[in-house]
Structures are given as C-alpha cells and as structure tokens.
Amino acid sequence: MDYCKNIPLELVENIKKAFIGKKTVIEKIIIAVLSGGHVLIEDVPGVGKTTLVQAVAKSLGCSFKRIQFTPDLLPSDITGITVYNNRTGEFEFKEGPIMANIILADEINRSSPKTQSSLLEAMQEGQITVDGVTYDLPKPFVVLATQNPIEYEGTFPLPEAQLDRFAMRIKIGYPDFNEEKSILKLQGKPIDEIESIITDKDVLKIREEIKKIYVEDSVKDYIISIVQATRKHQDVYLGCSPRGSLALLNACRGLAYIRDRNYVLPDDVKELADVILNHRIILKPEAKMKGRTVEDVIYSIISSIRVPLVSRNV
C-alpha cells in the first residue's frame, strides 16, 4: 500500500469538523466509498444524516449533487430527458442531477418505488438509459442515500432489488452527552470548514490499491459460509444474495486498507458483517412475532461458524 496511506485518517478528522462523534460510522462510510460501494444511512430525523453526507462529499473533492426525494419526484427528474432543439432540428439530452460523482439521495424512501427504481441501473452498472440511449456516469460514482425508518408516515419501503445494491446500511444513533454538548458549541456553518482532502482521481487510485489487498482462501470460505447460512437459518424467509458476498469481501479489503494492512483478517469480516448483510435478510413473520431481529440472526450465525486461522506474514 504505497499510495497515501494517511488519507483515510485525514478524511475522518476532516469530516469530524462538521459531524461530531460517531467515528466508527464515518469510517464505515469511507470504507464503502473507497471500496466502490453505495451506502444507505437510516435513522430518525435530526441526527445529522445529511450533514454527514455533505461532509463526506466535500472531503472527497468530487462533483456532488443533492436530490431531494419527494412523492411527486419523477424518474426523469433524476436521470434527465431528451428534448427537441428547434434551432438545430435535433434531439438533445438534458442531463439530470445524477451526472455527478457523489449523489446525495436525501430521504430516498419519501418517493414512490417507481422513482426509486430509476437508480437501479446507475448503481449497478454506472450508466443510465434514457429513450433507448445509454450514457456513462462519471467515475467514481457513489450514491449516499438517507432515509427515515419506514414506520414513519409518508414513506415507501425500498424494493429488495434496490436495497441489495447498497453495500452497507448504517444507523447513526443519537449522540452521547459529551457529543451533544460539543454540537451545542458549534458556531456558524461547520460544513463550510470542510476542505477537499483528495480528488476523484485519487479515489480511483485508492480503489485499485484496495483490489490488490490479499485475501486468503480460508477467509473467502468464511465469508461464503456466513452468507450461505443466512439462506438456511430457521428464522429467515429470504437470505443474502451473492452480491452480499462480494460486498462483504470488498468492504473487508477497504477496512484492511484504512487499518494500514495488506491482508484481510477474519475479524474484519465479523466487524462488517452486520452493516453489509442486515438489509439483505428478510425474517419470517413468526420470527418477528417472537421478537427476533436481523441483528440477532447475524450474531447467531457468526457465533456458530468456526473462525479460520490466518497467517499474518503476508
């Protein structure tokens, strides 16, 4: 790992100027972005979801667009439209806000599933198709979406296909006493103090380095065993897809990178399994009635699978 190994630490400290506390949350978002994944941040209003995403975008120095998802938002409001130019006599593509490196999909579950689905092709293939013509999106391309819990009024659950395209689902939680005290001391607009640490080209370079991080076959087997166990668990109606295995592998490489290691440990898998898998699992109704949660299932699976021994002399 020769390329700017201090960058992740600098990013965390820079983001903390505007978003107080929750270092582990910040680290996980950085891991996802640097390893090529999208992030869904789910929590109650007022805990700083939007501020966190804005701070991440400014720190990365990439082009940034915010899309406010509302019930009347249309897919064309996101992707853009083709219009006829009377002067030239030709149809021209007027790009939508999705043409940026970092997209803040704010309150994504406030819009209809049809509008939410307009992101499917973009998140998976890095491209959009409008009126039969395909357009490549800028690289890197990352969707950082926020949503309120679906038990709040006026929200629409995200389709499973949409959820599966997010590498992570993260909950911020309320600040502790000291963190909230620090928030009260903030003056002006802290987001204005955020400076760009890296550029879009730097992000692409780091992604190439992360791909080179070594993963032993035993660790890959460990990841597969965990994911396949979600499909066989007695409390699970729908388990994790192979996309979840890939997301967990990539995120573990990202975690190793920010910890300045050139190899992945089983502990990396255990640390990230919850945020990678929790939105890809659907429990059976009877399990929910018994008070079981997805987190309980993931914990029980990890506890039941033997942890492989890995050589650290890589």
Automatic annotation (TrEMBL):
Pfam family, one: AAA_3
Stretches that traverse the bilayer: none
Classification via InterPro entries: AAA+_ATPase (IPR003593), ATPase_AAA-3 (IPR011703), CbbQ/NirQ/NorQ/GpvN (IPR050764), ChlI/MoxR_AAA_lid (IPR041628), P-loop_NTPase (IPR027417)
Domain of life: Bacteria
Keywords (A to Z) from UniProt: ATP-binding, Nucleotide-binding
GO molecular function (one): ATP binding
Domain AAA+ ATPase, chain residue ranges per copy: 35-176
Family named by the database record: Belongs to the MoxR family.
Name of protein: MoxR-like ATPase
